[in-house]
Structure formats: C-alpha cells, structure tokens
Specification:
The complex is a heterodimer of chains A (112) and B (115). Chain A is mainly beta. In chain A, 0% of the residues lie in helices and 61% in strands. The radius of gyration of chain A is 14 Å and the shape is globular. Chain B is built from no helices and eleven strands. The chains are: A mainly beta (112), B mainly beta (115).
C-alpha cells in the first residue's frame, strides 16, 4: 500500500467551480501535513500546511482527520491559474529528522 | 524573498560518467535535502543532511550517490557512475530551525538526462 494516496484525476472544471481533492496516508506516525502545488516541469511549491482544526487561506481550505488518516483540499471559485498538479505531502519523523513523503498528485485543469 | 537555487538547470551526460549537481540553500537554513522525480512519477526522498552529515537516506541513495557541503553555502549531490535510470529531475530543498523545520523550500531543480 502506498504511504500517501490521492485521487487519480485529472479534474477538468470550468472557471468558478469548486473542486475537492482527497488524500489518505497509511503511517500513523506522520506528524505534519501539507498541500504543495507543482506546475509542469517545475518544483513543488508549498500551498498550505494542514492543521487538525482545519485552516483556510483565501479560496483554499484544508482539513485533516487524524482518526481516519485523511486530508482534503477544497478550492472555491477556481481560476485558470489554479491549473496545476496538487500534491498531498506528509512529513514523517524519523530518527530525529524529517522527510517529506509525496503523493503522486492530482492534476487540475481549469477551463474558461 | 530568499530562495533555493540550483545549477545547472539541465545536465546531459553519458552513462557511466560522474555528475555533480549543485544547490545553494537559503542562507540561514540548517537542514538540507535532495529529492528526485522521474518524469511522470511522484517526488521521492533521497537524502537529508544536517550538521555536516547525512541524517537519513532512502533505499534509492546507494553507494553511487554522495552529498557534500564543501563550504558555507553550497550543497552538492554527486552521482559517481550514472545509469540510464538516473534520468530524472533532482530537487534540492532546505529547511530552517525550530518551528520552521516544518517547511521545506524547493529549488527549481536540475533535469538530468543520461544517454
């Protein structure tokens, strides 16, 4: 079983749509959770951290359910510029240091 | 805004050759990482580095790989004898200290093509 699993995608949505991405992780020792965004052939860029209480940043809302080991990202009022691959990322504490475990990503295409 | 830089942006090499990929992490960061992404696949952890030594490495990071921080600013990844399957995008990342260790900032990557 993959340590971080995401919706396979791609998601094709019109501008203005609301789109939700889901992610599950298998290692209960995972400590911190993030959504990164990756444009084609570019580096991953941090979109937002995910907290147990849920958190919002403008049009983006992230939620974490530790009991279910489930993470979500909601994008409201999609823009053309939101088109990218969204990566669910988990940080696992290991021997005193941290490494990021990436999901395979879900591709989003927003069309006019 | 400070950023991680990497050189070269694209490296083409022949199988069996040695390559060195270079990174300049964010200046006050203490934790350094290399990740790779084979085309069409997910980003994979290779190695983490702290206090001038490797803190963790993945099963991908075999004896052909090494990392070094030769001076106060550069962080390098060396592949001693490249194989075709080493072709990938290699990302360097760095992280701060204290509460900011949660966040890793990625460089733009070096695309390695092994022929």
């Amino acid at each position: 079983r993959k340590e971080v699993e995401q919706d396979p995608g791609p998601f094709n949505v019109p501008e203005g749509a609301t789109v939700a991405f889901n992610c599950t992780y298998s290692n209960s020792a995972s400590q911190s959770f993030f959504w990164y965004r990756q444009d084609c052939r570019k580096e991953p860029k941090l979109l937002m951290s995910v907290y147990s209480s849920g958190n919002e940043d403008g049009r983006f809302t992230a939620q974490l359910n530790r009991a279910s080991q489930y993470i979500s990202l909601l994008i409201r009022d999609s823009k053309l510029s939101d088109s990218a691959t969204y990566l669910c990322v988990v940080k696992r504490f290991s021997g005193g240091y941290n490494k990021l475990i990436f999901g395979a990503g879900t591709r989003l295409a927003v069309h006019p | 805004e400070p950023e991680v830089t990497q050189t070269p942006s694209h490296q083409v090499t022949q199988m069996g050759q040695e390559v060195i990929l270079r990174c300049v992490p964010i200046s006050n960061h203490l934790y350094f990482y290399w990740y790779r992404q084979i085309l069409g696949q997910k980003v994979e952890f290779l190695v983490s580095f702290y206090n001038n030594e490797i803190s963790e490495k993945s099963e991908i990071f075999d004896d052909q790989f090494s990392v070094e921080r030769p001076d106060g600013s550069n962080f390098t990844l060396k592949i001693r004898s490249t194989k075709l399957e080493d072709s990938a995008m290699y990302f360097c990342a760095s992280g701060g200290a204290g509460e900011s260790t949660d966040t890793q900032y990625f460089g733009p990557g070096t695309r390695l093509t092994v022929l």
